[in-house]
Amino acid sequence: MDFAWSKNQKDLKEAAVKFAESKLNDKFIEKEERGEFSYQGWKACADFGLQGMLIPKAYGGMELNPLDIVAVLEGIGYGCRDSGLLFSINAHIWACELPIYHFGTEEQKQKYLPGLCQGQSIGANAMTEPDSGSDVYGLRTTATEEKDGFVLNGSKMFITNAPVADLFVVYARSGASKGFSGITCFIIEKGTEGLMVGKEFKKMGLRTSPMSDVAFQQCRVPKNNVVGKIGSGAIIFSDSMEWERTFILSYCIGVMERQWEACLKYAKLRKTGEKPIGKQQAVANKIVEMRVRLETSRLILYKAAWLKNIKKSAVTDSAIAKLYVSEAYVNNMRDAVQIFGGYGYMVEYGLERELRDALASTIYSGTSEIQKNIIGAFSGL
Ligand SMILES: Cc1cc2nc3c(=O)[nH]c(=O)nc-3n(C[C@H](O)[C@H](O)[C@H](O)COP(=O)(O)OP(=O)(O)OC[C@H]3O[C@@H](n4cnc5c(N)ncnc54)[C@H](O)[C@@H]3O)c2cc1C
Fold first, then answer.
1. Is the CB of 141 under 6 A from ligand 1?
2. Per-residue pLDDT tens for 73-107?
3. How far is the CA of 346 from the centre of ligand 1 (A)?
4. CB of 91 closer than 6 A to ligand 1?
5. Cβ-based burial of 379 (10 A; exposed 0-12, middle 13-18, buried ≥19)
6. Which CATH number is correct for 124-232, 1.10.10.10, 3.30.70.1060, 2.40.160.10, 2.40.110.10?
């Protein structure tokens, strides 16, 4: 067992921190207040290689291995205040690029991956529906087969990037059977007749990550745009979720590290009476607990990423990572606000924003309750 990062991985992380600090934080508080998605930040990240980290060089990517990807994302999270942008990029990578890369035809990979890697097109993933979120395979959007393709009807809910997306990976029921089988995965391009993108939602956090609903009304999709086999959509979605749950919180580890350092520094400087607050055991304990949650989050997430690195299944480990790291992230952000007292509650300090952003993490990619169901089921319960 080796717990050390290689020199190359340390360099990757350091480069990511420097890039994020210098290119992604400009006028961020105002942008967050306006809920403004940063096309400039998106392009800068693509130029840095972020959107193409996973994808082979042949399709315009960086071809990094899963552990290198964790090192980069952790560094980006440490340096970047715009968690909405980072969340949007993660949704793009794990739920749009990855299914095309793992299950798409050669023609689809050549057509779509270079633009997705290089920042020319933005991807979204549409699975959740108004009446099926946790009950994910209860989806009702239909895909009716006709001569040259499929006709989609139905609606999708909470779709990250939808207002700015050029490409949607969409799951719909193409067969009569219910549940896991009979679902097909499609690529639908922006501007396709019958694809309707709703008004942008206002959210509690991740405000710079645009989201809306999406509807399909007699939306015709050619057969060439089916991803994988007809009826294999649930397998594609599960694969994509296993990767997403492993990696999507990597940047949050970087945020947790930055906040932990800020709290430590503040607890040494801020005095009540003659004593720094860090000398109060109640405050010191909070800082220690934050550190323990940060370090355990790392170990759990790295293990899941290592399994993907050696090309092993990580269904349970990715659910454990998603559950543990998201809960730790929320708890650490809440403790950070508390340690800073009244200042922690003020917008200028950025801590209330980090808490609002963190709260979404126990909901997206499957709620904490659903991760527990998965871990329980794979434990034989
Ligand atoms: C910021 C954000 C981004 C998102 N981006 C996308 C996206 O890009 N694409 C997409 O398709 N979806 C996206 N979603 C949707 C997300 O996947 C769903 O919100 C999530 O799966 C929960 O579904 P729901 O909202 O319908 O809640 P429900 O399923 O209605 O759940 C409500 C509550 O009941 C609990 N619950 C439900 N069923 C069970 C059960 N069987 N056992 C135990 N507890 C249960 C849940 O844990 C939750 O606490 C996003 C959501 C958020 C918040």
1. no
2. 999 999 999 999 999 999 999 999 999 999 999 99
3. 30
4. yes
5. exposed
6. 2.40.110.10
